[in-house]
Amino acid sequence: MSHHPDPAGFRAAASRFSTGVTVVTSRSADGAPAGMTANSFTTVSMQPPTVLVSLKRGRTWQAVTESRRYAVNVLGADDVAICRHFAGAPLSQGAPSLIDCEGFFLLPQAIAQFGCEVVSAIEIADHTLFIGEVRWCRHQDGLPLAFYASRFRNGLGAEILPSDALAYPAEGWTI
Ligand SMILES: Cc1cc2nc3c(=O)[nH]c(=O)nc-3n(C[C@H](O)[C@H](O)[C@H](O)COP(=O)(O)O)c2cc1C
């Protein structure tokens, strides 16, 4: 078996890990918002509350690198157009409105929002892992947008087991 999969094979295999979809925003040096779609969002630890995003070099990367702050906006199932806008396919009617909240740029319809300060930035290949300590967060009910096999999905499938049937370890899982 090859230790170096071809890019298409790697992309196809990686795409079988289903994720949610977020828009990561930050403040550029001139004060303007920058934002990009990212599904690399991961929770890292509960104590202190810590997350990470993996961003390639670009406008948002630049803003996060300079401001050392970012917000993560978790998209709902109705937000495919917003996802595409922040992935380089701008909406014809103009940019979605972002609210400036204590220096973080937020999408009001996001089903969860995290305001983060960068505590570590690790460069890997052509990406940087921005590890952020969560200064505040909020959430609201809503169907999540999911991404699987390079397709957008309505993120709530049927529940497989009643959650109380799982034997949760007392400690060990981050979330
Ligand atoms: C579903 C989806 C997920 C993406 N996730 C990431 C990601 O985690 N990291 C990344 O660097 N780019 C990701 N991208 C690509 C960026 O959103 C895209 O390159 C964007 O235009 C970069 O914006 P900027 O460099 O102008 O800030 C994703 C795109 C899509 C459609």
TrEMBL record:
Give the signal sequence positions.
none
- Which InterPro entries does the UniProt entry name for this protein? Flavin_Rdtase-like_dom (IPR002563), NADH-dep_flavin_reductase (IPR050268), Split_barrel_FMN-bd (IPR012349)
This protein's species is Bradyrhizobium ontarionense
Q: Which domain of life is it from?
A: Bacteria
Keyword set for this entry?
Oxidoreductase
This one is known as Flavin reductase family protein
- Location of the Flavin reductase like domain: 14-154
Which Pfam family is one of this chain's hits? Answer: Flavin_Reduct
